[in-house]
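Internal tracking record. Fields below are filled automatically when a chain is submitted to the structure queue. Please do not edit lines marked as system-generated. If the sequence contains nonstandard residues, flag them in the REMARKS field before resubmitting.
Queue: standard
Priority: normal
Entity type: single polypeptide chain
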Amino acid sequence: MTSGASNQGYAEEAPVLLRRYEEAAFDDVAGGVLELIPAGPLRVLDIGAGTGRDTAWFAARGDGVLAVEPTAAMRAGAMALHPLP
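SYSTEM-GENERATED OUTPUT FOLLOWS
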């Protein structure tokens, strides 16, 4: 990672961030826009997937999702929390 990267610090904070992000359900976080999400199945690209919470929500609906998380520690945590293929 280069100095000044937008994901700088995430690796060190991953354990705290993983717990904090997972404390809030997708429905609670996205509540104001849920009615704007079309019925599926959709093809979703989750850039900066973090804990995988949002990716898992879409996948559970039957949507095809590609999750991209640049921080290895966050990506590993997401895969452990939401072990969907």
